Every structure is written in structure tokens, then in C-alpha cells.
């Protein structure tokens, strides 16, 4: 897999590139936001499987770079940030990031996240995402003011479209197909992230918080302490 590493620290980039290469990745190193955007142009060679984006760049804010990347490509983006607060993570997800890793991180954690986003993207490209229906076209899911169109991956609240990231949609679609049923955290992580790696739990919490914020319905997804989450169908 080709991987675009966006990192302004040459020493960090060299060490990480060596590790990634040992695990089978072909790494291209960009030292700035502008270099990263140039590397992602259509005529820049074979497409990248993942973009690993450090937010501390010398020329542009990393969040801004993420937004620009998402406008020109659907390549999965993993943010690398020292900002551990939930608000910063949600902001990154709202801009289109697929995942995040908080510094300092464990190398195996980073590799697990890279493989998880690439597997999910490959599954969606071959038609095996959360919206697949073996029985043909799936009718919209209607939960009070919320409408979920599985084939088109569109979500609206009171007729107004809400923009969700791929993971946010998959998470919402999973919970919405069985309103009131408690989904265990392990089950959600397995079905949405396609991994059993325990560290994904923090990512799940941030995605739930982001969904509550975007839909402006904090009570829609209920936390069942010690177990997982369930979707509470709102009244019509």
C-alpha cells in the first residue's frame, strides 16, 4: 500500500518511514501541507491508500489541510495530534478525517488504525459496507425526524441533509437498524471498524459525541454504562 506521511520533522518522519516500510508500506514523505496537496494531485502517480497527517505543520493549519484533502480525494485520512481533548477530535472528524491518533502513540496502535481504515474503505469500494442489503433496495429508515437512506448514505433531520463522515454514517446505520437494542462496544467496533482491537474504544466515544452534535439530538444515542450504546427512537 502507498502511504502519504505528512510530517515536518525529518527525524520523526525517517524513523516512522522505516517502521512502515518494514510492514510493507511504500511511504511518500511530505514536509508541509502544500507538499501533501501536490502529492495528492491526480497526475502524481498511483493513488495512496492512507494519508497520515500530522497537525503541526509549518505552512498551514493541519485541520485546514485535512479539509482540502477531503475536497479532492476520498483517501482515508488519519490525523496525528497532541491535542487529546474531545472537541479537537470531533472537529477533525467533521472535516472528514477517518480516524486520529494522539501523541505519544504506540507504533502497533498506529499500524492497527492504518489497517482498520484501509480494510473498511476496501469493503465499501467492493459493496460490502454497512448499507449493503442482500435482498435488494432497502427502504429509508425513519426515526422520528431522522431519515436514513442506506443506498445513498444520506441522512436528514426534518428534511435538512446532515453531512456525516463514513464512520459516522456506518455507526448510525448500525444502531438505527435495531432501535432500542443495546449494541455492545465490542460488537460496534467489530462491525463498523472491522477490528477487535481494544484501543478503538476511544474513537467510538468520539464518533458518538460527534453524531449527537451533528444531529442536534443528544438523546438519540443512549450510553448504556459498562455495555455499549443503543438508539432511542424519538417521537414523531
From TrEMBL:
| UniProt cross-references to Pfam families, sorted A to Z | Response_reg (PF00072), Trans_reg_C (PF00486)
Q: Which UniProt keywords apply?
A: DNA-binding, Phosphoprotein, Transcription, Transcription regulation, Two-component regulatory system
GO-annotated molecular function: phosphorelay response regulator activity; transcription cis-regulatory region binding
- Give the OmpR/PhoB-type domain ranges: 138-233
Q: Which InterPro entries match?
A: CheY-like_superfamily, OmpR/PhoB-type_DNA-bd, Sig_transdc_resp-reg_receiver, WalR-like, WH-like_DNA-bd_sf
Write down the DNA-binding region ranges.
138-233
The Response regulatory domain covers which part of the protein? 2-118
Q: Where is this region: Disordered?
A: 121-142
An example Gene Ontology CC term for this record = cytosol
Instruction: Fetch the PANTHER family from UniProt.
Output: REGULATOR OF RPOS, SENSORY TRANSDUCTION PROTEIN REGX3
User: Would you tell me the protein name for this molecule?
Assistant: Sensory transduction protein RegX3
Q: Identify the species of origin.
A: Streptomyces melanosporofaciens
Amino acid at each position: 500500500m502507498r502511504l502519504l506521511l505528512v510530517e515536518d520533522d525529518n527525524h520523526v518522519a525517517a524513523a516512522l518511514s522505516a517502521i512502515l516500510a518494514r510492514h510493507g508500506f511504500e511511504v511518500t514523505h511530505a514536509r508541509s501541507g502544500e507538499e501533501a496537496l501536490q502529492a495528492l494531485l491526480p497526475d502524481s502517480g498511483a493513488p495512496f491508500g492512507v494519508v497520515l497527517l500530522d497537525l503541526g505543520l509549518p505552512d498551514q493549519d493541519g485541520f485546514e489541510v485535512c479539509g482540502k484533502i477531503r475536497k479532492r480525494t476520498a483517501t482515508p485520512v488519519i490525523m496525528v495530534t497532541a491535542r487529546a481533548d474531545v472537541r479537537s477530535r470531533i472537529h477533525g472528524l467533521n472535516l472528514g478525517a477517518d480516524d486520529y491518533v494522539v501523541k505519544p502513540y504506540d507504533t502497533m496502535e498506529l499500524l492497527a488504525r492504518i489497517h482498520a481504515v484501509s480494510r473498511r474503505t476496501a469493503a465499501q469500494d467492493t459493496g460490502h459496507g454497512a448499507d449493503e442489503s442482500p435482498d435488494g433496495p432497502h427502504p429509508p429508515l425513519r426515526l422520528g425526524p431522522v431519515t436514513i437512506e442506506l443506498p445513498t448514505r444520506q441522512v436528514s433531520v426534518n428534511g435538512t441533509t446532515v453531512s456525516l463522515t463514513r464512520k459516522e454514517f456506518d455507526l448510525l446505520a448500525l444502531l438505527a437498524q435495531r432501535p432500542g437494542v443495546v449494541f455492545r462496544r465490542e460488537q460496534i467496533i467489530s462491525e463498523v471498524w472491522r477490528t477487535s482491537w481494544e484501543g478503538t474504544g476511544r474513537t467510538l466515544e468520539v464518533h458518538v459525541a460527534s453524531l449527537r452534535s451533528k444531529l442536534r439530538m443528544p438523546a438519540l444515542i443512549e450510553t448504556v454504562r459498562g455495555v455499549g450504546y443503543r438508539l432511542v427512537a424519538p417521537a414523531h
